[in-house]
Amino acid sequence: MAHNRVVQWSTMSRIWWLYDAKYQCPFRSSRVIAGYLQGQHKPIYHALSDVGDHVVVVNSRHIAMREQLWRTFTFSHHTGYAKGFSRTPAWRLHSMEPTYMIERTVYSNIPGTLLRRKYMRRLHIFPDEEVPPEIMGNVCDQIQQIQKVPKRLDEYTAEEIQAFPRLFDWSEDYVIENNTEEKQKNQPEKVKK
């Protein structure tokens, strides 16, 4: 009897997930985060039941958008009054509040039911890697990143660079001679006055 109760507790418990948003697309990431907030990854999921988990998002300041979306994508807002419509470019909104873009995209990916605000209260967004210890102490699992984080050239070791497959080999007779000495000999000397 007691074992069944423990199984039920572990099934209904809320897990704290960590998601690193560094170099990740906010639109693709928000779909995954919204699924974890709603509990879609659980076998007991139902659209009308509140079985979602907590998600802690770090490095929201370092998100990446493809092509020209930083310049062209706009967030719209209306106050409800006449002439209260405003549009803000993504780059300006992100420079003012680095956590707001993730929050807005996750909010738009959650269905507009009465549970939406409850789900959003379980989303904890931080602009950098500094997370309060009381929140970090609850985190017990990590959500895999959507995009692979690229390495810079200076992060590769010399062995990795040498082991990189070559597309073709230069032939030995393909050597460009250094003609600087010949050019200097062929140029007329400047006359000094």
Automatic annotation (TrEMBL):
GO terms for cellular component: mitochondrial large ribosomal subunit. The keyword Lipid biosynthesis does not apply. Coiled coil: none annotated. The keyword Aminoacyl-tRNA synthetase does not apply. CDD domains: Ribosomal_L13 (cd00392). It holds the Pfam family Ribosomal_L13. One of its GO terms (biological process) is negative regulation of translation. PANTHER family: LARGE RIBOSOMAL SUBUNIT PROTEIN UL13M, RIBOSOMAL PROTEIN L13. Belongs to the universal ribosomal protein uL13 family. This is 39S ribosomal protein L13, mitochondrial-like.
